[in-house]
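Hi C.,

You asked whether I'd gotten around to modeling the 77-residue construct. I have! Everything is below, sequence then structure, no commentary in between.
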Amino acid sequence: MQLPTAASLQRTDEICKEIEEIVKKTPGVQYVSTVVGFSLLSTVTSTYNGFMFVTLAPWDERKKPEEKLLSIFRTHQ
């Protein structure tokens, strides 16, 4: 995610934590790992960027339609 230019690292961290909580409650999501203060796209360290790695539960544990990849993706667009 990218906040407005010059947003503080603390503000970026707060927003990331809010997003983490939403993603963690999504059916089919097992883990969320967040990096704050770095842009994976530009490989630049900044206070207003962050990104997440979202790990889904194993396929054999995601049997409900809402736990499938496309459903999870559509939920958070």
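If it helps when you're writing up: Residues 9-24 form the longest helix (16 residues).

Thanks,
B.
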